[in-house]
Hints:
This protein folds into 3 domains: 4-62, CATH 2.40.50.140; 65-127, DNA polymerase, domain 1 (Orthogonal Bundle); 160-205, Helicase, Ruva Protein, domain 3 (Orthogonal Bundle). It has a 5-stranded mixed β-barrel. It is built from 9 helices and 5 strands, in the order βββββααααααααα. It starts with a strand and ends with a helix. β1 (4-12) and β2 (17-21) form a beta hairpin. By secondary structure, the protein is an alpha+beta fold.
Amino acid sequence: MYEYIKGIITYISPYYIVIETHGIGYQILVANPFKLSSYRDKQVTLYLYQAVREDAMTLYGFETLEEKQLFLKLISVSGIGPKSGLAIMASADHAGLVTAIENSDHSYLTKFPGVGKKTAQQMVLDLKGKLGDVNFEPSLVGQQQLEMDSEFTAKRTISALEEACEALKALGYSAREISKVKKGLAAENLTTTDEYLRRGLSLLMKK
Length: 207
């Protein structure tokens, strides 16, 4: 079982990133791949969760140990698998997610992709009062604050918007849901995929 990986980000897609270490490239699913755009070709450290099935072995990556701990608690809930847990992690302000569970806010929880009323109730039942050890600090990657490099801020806006929509699709949002927010996103003064993705998630959570 892997605890963490330290290596160079060599590829970023809407679905996953690739980290190369000792000549091997590891495909790792993360909540928001484009958040790591400024670290392409740079060294990072991610905490890992390894999911093993008969037909596949999948690695999930997290910037902090606290994020990994929250993910592990989420997938302990009946009805939430690793991919659903990752989608929830991407869609939520993590402190807000913990607050929603502690306050039994089912209407907030059902806004996540793949979370219906029954699963939201199960999340509260299983996790309420058990998240006190999860404290979130500002995310650090490679021991540095994330700063967008100029080469990424200069990325074409149209391409960034399309990449963000693909990332929303990867997180489990339907084409209909994405279409509803895409027009509004196009009208906003944003430039990077990460900005579009974060704003898109914010709009989807309000619906």
